[in-house]
Amino acid sequence: MPNSGKHRRSKSSIIARGVAAAGAGGAVIALPLLGATGAHAAEQSAPAASKSAAAHTASAKSAKSAGTTYSVVSGDYLSKIAAAHHVEGGWQKLYQDNREVIGEDPSLILPGMKLTLGAEAAPAAATPSKAPAETVVKAEVKTEAKTEAPAPAAQDNASGYVHPVPGNHTTAYRASGANWSSGSHTGIDFPVATGTSVKAITSGTVVTAGWGGAYGNQVVIKHADGHYSQYGHMSSLSVSAGQTVTAGQQVGLSGSTGNATGPHLHFEVRTGPEYGSDIDPIAYLASHGISV
C-alpha cells in the first residue's frame, strides 16, 4: 500500500498571516506584522517632523528680520536712538534700514517717524562680482557720516567765532509784543529755511540738548568765557549733553518746533544756562568780530 504523502504548507502563507504553527494541536505564536502600510507611515513621519522644524526656524528668522518699530519723539537723533536701543552697526545701520522713511538727509528726522530697529537685511541677489558691491556700500556709509557730523566750518575771523547760520537777523533783541511770555524778545531771530545747518558760534560744552518747551528742540552751550549760547526751534539735533563742540560744528538743523510762526533760528547769549539770564547777543557777537 503506497505510503500516504505529507504536504507542507507554504512558508509564505504563514509569514503573510503573521503566524507560525508548531504542529497539529501545538501552540501558535503570533509574529508582528511589518506590512507595507506601516513602513510607509514610518517613512512619512520623518519628512513631516523635518517640515515642522523648518517652519519653526523660518518663523524665528522672519521675526528677527522684521525687528521692532520705534516712533521718533522730539529731541531724537539717529546716534541717540542707536545707542539707547543698542543697534548693532550704530546710526549708519539704523539709517540704512530706514532710508526710505528718513530721506536723503540722515540728520533730519521728525517726530512721529516710524523707524525699524534691529532689522536684518534680506539676502542680496547673486551678482557677477561681489567686490564692487562692497565698495559701493563703504563709500555710502562714509558719505552719510559726513552728512550727520560735518567737520567744523572755517572760522569767520581770527577770534574763533562764527555765524550760527547764514544771513542777518530780523526780529531784534528786546523787541516788545504779545508773542513773548516775558513781554519782550530775549534773543534774535534768523529767518532760515527748515533744514539749514546750525553751528556753534565758538567752542564749548553742550549743557542742554533736547526739548525746551516754547523753544522746541534746543541746544545750550557753555563757552570758555563763562557765557552760554542758545539755539531754539530746531527740527533735529546733532549733539547731546556733555559733548564738546568746536567753533562752526553743526549742533542741529533749523526748523519751527515749539512756539514758532514759521521756520527760523532763535538765538540767545546768556550769563547762565537757563531762561531769564539773556544779554544782548548782537553786542556780544560784535565784540568777537561777528556782525549779524
Outline:
This protein has about 290 residues and is an alpha+beta fold. It has helices at about 10-15, 35-65, 80-85, 90-95, 100, 130-150, 280-285; strands spanning about 20, 30, 70, 115, 190, 195-200, 205-210, 215-225, 230-235, 235, 245, 250-255, 265-270, 280. It folds into three domains: about 10-65; about 65-120, LysM domain (Membrane-bound Lytic Murein Transglycosylase D, Chain A, Roll); about 150-290, Glucose Permease (Domain IIA) (Distorted Sandwich), CATH 2.70.70.10.
Describe the 3D structure:
There is one protein chain. The chain has helices at 11-17, 36-66, 78-84, 90-97, 99-102, 130-148, 281-286, and strands at 19-21, 28-30, 68-71, 114-117, 188-190, 197-199, 204-211, 217-223, 228-234, 236-237, 244-245, 250-253, 265-270, 278-279. The protein is an alpha+beta fold. It has 3 domains: 9-66; 67-120, Membrane-bound Lytic Murein Transglycosylase D, Chain A, CATH 3.10.350; 150-292, Glucose Permease (Domain IIA), CATH 2.70.70. Strands 5, 7, 8, 9, 11, 13 and 14 form a 7-stranded antiparallel sheet that branches. The protein has a 3-stranded antiparallel sheet with strand order 6-12-10, with no helix packed on it. Strand 8 (217-223) and strand 9 (228-234) form a beta hairpin. Helix 3 (78-84) packs across helix 4.
